[in-house]
């Protein structure tokens, strides 16, 4: 082992090459290149194979990180992929978009004074290589089961569950109101973080594996929950959270004040070459405009960086706390700044101004006051500190809440929390309706892709147990 590993002492941390800001501002391609094989091997060899690997403990999927790093360092990439994919349905996607600084890499305890192992980039490299080499094949279940399962939502939670259930031999049907599978992976997250072909090859494989996709199928419009319960032996609700949080300030009803997701969906659709009337007419296109994005999370970061690529005249991000207290990834803020985004820290909107359409955002300075029960300092306005920013398009990125699912699904009996998330039994992830399970953002609230995958996998395990019990009862 010593020959291939523990090289953090002699080899520095290196991430894959990042494209220069001047060129990456011009397109929606991913900003990081792939490791070359030598660099991947070298970086994997920095791992010290900790007895208690904190990287693994802090990965929501419990990935066997030291094991696949070791296999990579030894050049055994196919074995590394087998191991990585045993716990993760989309390693190349997590390798690209997990906030590693808060998860695996942030907890890599290599040694004081040494930078962490670049776990995410190695994971991406292993899985991209597996795709290139043709090691990833459609699923061929060992047995075919007669039971059918309906999954509502083709985001990461639904897709991960579908893969697990199909592998166990069940007949899986996915229903989604969008025309393409992937959920926020295709229509929320922009291509410069996650190119769409990367998602497409995963969903394509599931289709080739015998999973049936019913696209443009909105549950609650085409059919309601009861109809699907009739059709299937078990159901999974994995619909994500889509209701934007609103802001109540004067002028919020003016034209050209838009929700983040409308803006990002339009941009992603253009990337696919779709006709998008609101973009084609210029309404949702940032070209030549002064853009103000309100919010400090990952969605806000995706909006500002999209606006840069669309050729905005200026892009400003207004956030009420400071850099240290923003929820978005620090790396994404750095990427945005490199690309020309201006952050206006400690500032909150007081009003939108304009006649018919917005022409400016009046804001005031904020300061951080006393901490709340969680210790987080609450921002409060500084008196007489108002200032104004020019604005032709304001984008609201204030987070998302669940829609009213019981009403939407025609299922008032479906139990939800006071925040609207679906209530599940924490062991089984079953809702209060027999045989109806739930997973992903619709259960935990807006979260991360890696947690959605974890939930999808957990729900699938419970559904398999449930269906096996049903089969035993019927025998
Ligand atoms: P979703 O991905 O939202 O998928 C739900 C699916 O259900 C959708 O396809 C939707 O069309 C479908 N659906 C909803 N209602 C119905 C209905 N009634 N009938 C049929 N279908 C329905 N996470 C990260 O880890 N890293 C990131 O960099 C990151 N960036 C993000 C950027 C943005 C702009 C946003 C909004 C989120 C980001 N996230 C990121 C969070 C991440 O995308 C979500 O946590 C994750 O996608 C949740 O997965 P899900 O399967 O629960 O739901
Ligand atoms: Fe890290 Fe995410 Fe991969 Fe886990 S899934 S090892 S948290 S990048
Ligand atoms: Fe390797 Fe870091 Fe994980 Fe330790 S914490 S096993 S050094 S990746």
Based on the coordinates given, report the CATH architecture of the largest domain.
3-Layer(bba) Sandwich
Main sheet, how many strands, which sense, barrel?
5 strands, parallel
Bound molecules: flavin-adenine dinucleotide, iron/sulfur cluster
The fraction of residues assigned to DSSP E strands is 15-25%
How would you describe the shape? globular
Number of strands: 16
CATH topology of the largest domain: FAD/NAD(P)-binding domain
Notes on the protein architecture:
This protein is an alpha/beta fold and about 475 residues long. The protein has 18 helices and 16 strands. A five-stranded parallel beta sheet has the order 3-2-1-4-16, with helices on both faces. A five-stranded parallel beta sheet has the order 6-14-7-8-9. Strands 10, 11, 12 and 13 form a four-stranded antiparallel beta sheet that branches. The longest helix has 26 residues, at about 450-475. The chain is globular and about 75 Å long. The protein binds flavin-adenine dinucleotide and iron/sulfur cluster (SF4) (2 copies). One iron/sulfur cluster binds near residues 48 and 54.
